[in-house]
Amino acid sequence: MDYKQIESKWQKIWADTGLYKFDRSRVDKKYYCLEMFSYPSGAKLHAGHWYNYGPADTFARFKRMQGYEVFQPMGFDAFGLPAENYAIKTGIHPEESTLKNIATMERQLKRIGAMYDWDYEIKTCMPDYYKWTQWMFLQLYKKGLAYRKEAPVNWCPSCNTVLANEQAQGGVCERCGSQVTHKNLNQWFFKITAYADELLDCIDKLDWPEKTKLMQKNWIGRSYGGEVEFQVKDSDVKFKVFTTRADTIFGVTYVVLAPESPLVDLVVKDEQRAAVEEYKEKSAKATEIDRMSSTREKTGVPTGSYAINPVNGEEVPILVADYVIASYGTGAVMGVAAHDERDFVFAQKLGLPVKRVIKSKDGSNDALPFCEYGVLCNSGEFDGMTSEEGKLAILKKLEKEGKGGLKTNYRLRDWLVSRQRYWGAPIPIIHCDHCGDVPVPEKDLPVRLPLGVNFTPDGESPLKKCDEFINTVCPVCGRPAKRDADTLDTFVCSSWYYLRYADPKNEKAPFDSEWINKMLPVDKYIGGAEHACMHLLYSRFFTKALRDMGYLNFDEPFLSLVHQGTILGPDGNKMSKSKGNVVSPDDSIAKYGADIFRVYLMFGFNYVEGGPWNDNGLESISRFFDRVERIVKKCYEVNFDDAPLSKAEKELNRVRNNTIKCVTNDLGVFSFNTAVARLMEFVNAMYNYEVNVAKKNAIYKDCAKDLVLLLAPFAPHFCEELWEMLGQKYSVFNQSYPTFDPAAMVLDEVELAVQINSKMRAKVTVSSSASKDEIEKAALEAVKDQLSGAPKKIIVVPNRLVNIIA
Question: Are 24 and 514 in contact (CB under 8 A)?
């Protein structure tokens, strides 16, 4: 079969007949199947794209054949840093390179044979999309969920520019290799922390991978504890620390401030100032991830000041250490060296005191640090209490004295959404000297991204250099004003795209709420696990915020989530040009066709795990296709009769129904490799029947039809051709997916192994409905010449064997 020819043939027929157009009148039967959209940073789809989109399309086609009105859109996450960096390097404008890449990827996506309805395509870099991204920003701003404050950013002093976290990995600039520092700039944030509890409490209701749910739980990081206020000695300065172990507070021997905390400048003594400033400069070069690493060596310097422990009045030194992060908790922690592993190591290194205030409940463990719960000691009136009792009693007393109380803390921080970059959606805010921050009126959206901008890095947001853009008038007072020069994080664009897909041509709103509430939530979402704590979390936040504004009536965007694994190179390593192990889909498709490539991706790997590429797998699938084609050709070369089913035909029918059952179950859980293996077994059974039975029963043609229907979601072009060869009505995808007959899976007779003392001696065939006595009688008859007396015991394993203990 000429696979290239049939792919072109059927793609044209599908397009001409509008086979995959979403029927809005059947919205009550909708099934929203969504793959994470692509970022068009490269000119071609790679094997990883195919591994996401091909199997996902198989699942979508399966749901269509089960009677659902499948909505499967496609689009492009088209703003972002790679296109801007490419423009800086080559001089090609990001819009030009992005749209060119999109056009190429559209052609390639169509070649996959996926049933995307391109009428619903979106491109996030187009004004008709980012107009509504800006609208989303304004709604959050009106509700107090978007705000501006000073925050640290990564800064390269050599390039004189702000760097994204991705550009500052390891604390060095990816462009020039210089050490990255931090500087404070006014930044925009979304108040995702306002939804921390709901984001955490609702996640277990979702059909998501447990690992992904755990990652989000840990990222949100809710912890119950207390807040305790310390007074700086000989000063009016006070500060709070958060702790989950208030039972250890009598053991505090020092407190630590984050280097970037404003408290440092308030408490540092003159004689320590030089050392502290040097330490601050050094810590500014490290990323937060590096600073928080449990394996990193802990360092710190004293400020010369002391804090007063509120429970016992003891004076403890205040130090600065970079393992404390200003934006987490209060930016200050209490050091309890005797009962915390990190604090113990830090105290040992700096020669700080260690004071035991918790002992084991049975007195069996005196080793320090003792980090478990136990019984309080050296804790005044709280001695003898358990840790559980003590921390609650201590916090209640502190609350009564106005020095602390119960507190819930979160690891999650508000989402920083402003970027000092060019290729993104402009932030729709005007800064007026008289009126302050003024939102752009909705009637003036979109705030268009100007094209003629010099985005060569010079330390400022590129849009600041575009006078036509930056200079405007205040919509409130009419005086001269400035537009915000920053652009939105591209994750803002992708946090609501699943909503726009369903209503992409709406010019009056981002979507029609009545319609969107029928179309969503997404029933099945497919994409990479690397998005667990960003895109997936941000989308949940957007959905909940829009719900609370009255635009949506559902709580979660994605009801069910599947992560695909990673395709590795033939050498078992991650594909990269430098290793020379990149697999080009184009080369394989040119030789084998898209369907064989698709089916290999599903047969050769466990979908959620991936694995190393093997070219021999393509050849194996090619041979499988040849065998299937020969079965179909046999159906119009041979005459069939409708005689009653023989034993061989009943066995073939049993395999057929068992295959239908197993493939249906496998597809439902994305177990594509086992589903294809079942189909191969079915083909083997049909060949076995063909070899052993000269006269063909009509059951053979029925099996061939079911084989094509079962295989159709995997190999759409190939199976459309086979369906036509069988003389069936167009299209195979307008047919119902086969269902199995449980009765056909029950054999009239079963063959049992007969053992004597667990050793195989004979085989016996009995009725599938035979009683235990009848089975024992038949087994004894089969081996009577091998027995020398009455058996001691007979063990019957139904449908498998009989073991006679002699």
Answer: no
Angle between helices 594-603 and 585-592 (to 10 degrees): 120
Q: Give the chain's residues under pLDDT 50.
A: none
Whether 555 is in a domain gets the answer no
**Taking the mean position of all CA atoms in its chain, how far away is CA 460?**
33
In a shared domain, residues 369 and 427: no
Q: What is the pLDDT of residue 695?
A: 62
Q: What per-residue confidence (pLDDT) applies to 769?
A: 84
What's the domain range around 314? 223-409
CA of 590: how far to CAs of 585, 597, 720, in Å? 8, 10, 20
First to last CA, the chain: 60
Backbone φ and ψ of 99, nearest 5° = -65, -35
Domain count, the chain: 4
Residues 740 and 781 in one domain: no
Quick count: other Cβ atoms within 10 Å of Cβ 208? 22
Report residue 590: phi and psi, to 5°: -60, -35
CATH number, residue 484: 2.170.220
The tokens describing 694, both together, are 């000269």
pLDDT at position 30 is: 98
Task: Please state whether 91 falls in left (phi above 0), alpha (psi between -120 and 50) or beta.
Answer: left
For residue 261, give every residue at least 6 positions away whose Cβ sits within 8 Å of its Cβ, in sequence order, or none: 324, 326, 331, 332
What's the CATH code of the domain at 629?
A: 1.10.730.10
Look at residue 285 in the predicted model and tell me its pLDDT.
78
CATH number for the domain harbouring residue 777: 3.10.20.590
User: Which of 393, 409, 425 is the C-terminal boundary of a domain?
Assistant: 409
Q: Does 343 map to a domain?
A: yes
Examine residue 523 and state whether it is found in any structural domain, yes or no.
Answer: no
CB 621 within 8 A of CB 680: no
Q: Compute the distance between CA of residue 561 and CA of residue 643 in angstroms, rounded to an integer.
A: 48
Cα distances (Å, whole numbers) of residue 690 to 200, 377, 694, 741: 58, 84, 7, 23
Q: In what helix (H) or strand (E) does residue 241 lie, and over which residues does it extend?
A: strand 238-243
Q: Which of 490, 517, 551 is the last residue of a domain?
A: 490
Instruction: Assess contact for 415 and 190: CB atoms under 8 A.
Output: yes
730, 736, 737, 740: CA torsion to nearest 10? -130
Contacts (Cβ under 8 Å, ≥6 apart) of 563: 209, 212, 526, 527, 528, 529, 608
Q: Which residues contact 657 (CB under 8 A, 6 or more apart)?
A: 740, 741, 742, 744, 745
754 and 702 belong to one structural domain: no
Q: Contact at 8 Å (CB) between 20 and 14?
A: yes
Q: Are 110 and 102 in contact (CB under 8 A)?
A: no
Structure tokens at 520: 């969503």
* Alpha-carbon span 277 to 481, nearest angstrom: 38
Q: Are residues 259 and 300 in the same domain?
A: yes
Same domain, 371 and 291: yes
In this structure, are residues 258 and 331 in contact, taking their beta carbons and an 8 Å threshold? yes
pTM of model > 0.70: yes
Helix (H) or strand (E) holding 183: strand 181-190
Q: Are residue 232 and residue 347 in the same domain, yes or no?
A: yes
Structure tokens at 654: 């049993």
Q: What is the pLDDT of residue 153?
A: 78
pLDDT of residue 93: 93
pLDDT at 394 (0 to 100): 98
Alpha-carbon distance of 142 to 437, in angstroms, equals 12
Residues 169 and 288 in one domain: no
d(CA 794, CA 803): 6
